[in-house]
Specification:
The chain is an alpha/beta fold and 368 residues long. The chain is 32% helix and 13% strand.
């Protein structure tokens, strides 16, 4: 099979860190705060701007608080778990690598006595009807490593428990039911293509009340302590002001293309392009079999044969970087489809997938 004539203009399809916004240039960033203290008034103003623009773009309720935290989304989730859990039994939805990690941490590190892990295989969702709204609930809205996502519905019932939502590959790409969530976390490196290392922690009035009333029985290191100042841009540790400038660049771009509805539409268009190709491709299939549960960001394909070789061929050709499936997931490919990825680049990639599969198959040793 001959190589396709058209190549993606941007070969970055990694699921984190993700592709920069279209037209991104390093020299377009505001670097005036480099070498300055993050506590300087002008630097604090930039940190506050990240908070304000993020909240507005996500249509976060006005009575929620949002802060910048260290250690990416992982840091934000762990801060919430270690600071808020304990007063109630906990249900955890575990249907891919990271949600399974939260379940393991709650069980083996926090050692909470009353925890239920509601599990499902990659590409599927747990039994959502089993959730007890009287329990605290920990979930990932989108399975970054499985390609399956949650969607709004009656399963998410408002009860006395808090709902802690890891939204790292959902924020800025999917609608979130803020009225039935209490903690929402994400990182800069996902849907807006920011630099890694910084997380965001959003808390509802119910979560803030729990924070004020509940004192964990375990010690909390400084890096996990949630303070009022962080919601004003007073970060727990020193942030990278270059990363801050980059985050602001991504937020302003998102506003310029039409805000959250446009970001969601761009991601859904990328999923639709791959779905049209998958429908007539016998050698690949969606890991999430149910179309209603398919993620438009972390688009995971089950490829039983030659998946690592396909990823290597495409990387060598400079057509697609970092699209091998996550190490714990079934063999396959994982293509990021968030809003910073142009649909034209997805469409240009698809013939190359066919070429790489045909090439890998032709080179495979014959069965004897």
């Amino acid at each position: 099979m001959t190589k396709p004539a058209l190549r993606p203009t941007n070969p970055c399809f990694s699921s984190g860190p993700c592709a920069k916004r279209p037209g991104w240039r390093a020299d377009a960033l505001d670097t005036s705060m480099l070498g300055r203290s993050h506590r300087a008034p002008a630097a604090r103003a930039q940190l506050a701007e990240v908070i304000d623009r993020s909240a507005a773009l996500l249509q976060m309720p006005s009575d929620w608080k949002l802060g910048i935290v260290p250690a990416s989304d992982t840091g934000a989730v762990e801060m919430a778990l270690w600071s808020l859990l304990g007063p109630r039994p906990v249900d955890v939805l575990a249907f891919e690598s990271f949600s399974a990690l939260w379940a393991a941490d709650i069980t083996t590190q926090l050692k909470l006595p009353a925890i239920r892990t509601l599990s499902a295989d990659y590409g599927t969702l747990p039994d959502l009807s089993a959730i007890d709204p009287a329990h605290d609930l920990v979930l990932a809205w989108n399975g970054t490593t499985s390609g399956a996502r949650l969607t709004d519905g009656p399963w998410l019932r408002r009860g006395d428990g808090l709902v802690i939502c890891d939204a790292t590959s959902a924020a800025f790409a999917m609608d979130l039911p803020w009225d039935r969530l209490d903690v929402v976390t994400w990182s800069w490196q996902k849907a807006l293509g920011g630099e890694a290392g910084h997380g965001m922690l959003a808390m509802s009035p119910r979560a803030l009340a729990r924070l004020a009333e509940h004192t964990p029985t375990w010690p909390l290191p400084k890096i996990f302590r949630i303070t009022p100042g962080m919601f004003r841009g007073d970060t727990i540790n020193t942030p990278s002001m270059l990363c801050v400038a980059d985050a602001l660049d991504g937020l302003r771009w998102a506003e310029s293309v039409g805000g959250l509805p446009a970001l969601i539409a761009r991601a859904e268009a990328n999923l639709a392009a791959i779905a049209a190709w998958e429908a007539h491709t016998p050698w690949a299939s969606f890991l999430a079999a149910d179309p209603a549960q398919r993620s438009p960001t972390s688009i995971c394909l089950r490829v039983p044969d030659h998946a690592p070789r396909i990823a290597d061929l495409l990387a060598t050709e400079g057509v697609a970087h970092d699209i091998a499936s996550y190490r714990d997931a079934p063999p396959g490919l994982r293509i990021w489809g968030g809003a910073t990825v142009e649909t034209a680049n997805i469409e240009a990639l698809l013939p190359w997938l066919d070429w790489a599969h045909a090439t890998a198959s032709a080179a495979a040793p014959a069965m004897v």
